[in-house]
Amino acid sequence: MGNFKEDIARIRAFVFDVDGVMTDGGITVTPEGEFLRTFYAKDGYALSLALKKGYRIAIITGAGNDQVRFDMIGIEHVYTNCHHKLKALHELCGIWSMEPDEIMYMGDDVPDLEPMTHVGMPVCPADAAMEVIGISRYVSQFNGGAGCVRDVVEQVMRARGDWYKLGDEPIPVASR
To answer: Cα(84)–Cα(23) distance, rounded to whole angstroms?
Structure first.
């Protein structure tokens, strides 16, 4: 483990939890029993740009099926209702032919602790559980669902020289 800026330049893949990371953790239940979550659009843009630039991205969540949202962005590896997050992380390493030290994992609560200790760069939102903050190499200044995903993706891409530059073709925003 060296300098943070040098270490993030080695990151080639991102793994994210959903509730409390990509969302603020709040869930609205409709009269029909559907769960609705609110996602931060700027996080989606950063993820789309990272995918376009060749980064690997996966979702590992204990929450139910949110596949539609992630399909819109282009994320192929989505583990929902996942209660063995470390097993899913090891599976991703095999699929991607990648070492865990090339992966950044952003989690916010106790179920994320185990996989976070097996990656090169464990990170979390500002409002993560104290145990998660304690093992994180970086704590975003942004809360879950309020830009923490964009923060870490942009930092990695800037460190690697991959962030959007004037003259790059913009990524179209997914239709809703």
So the answer is: 21
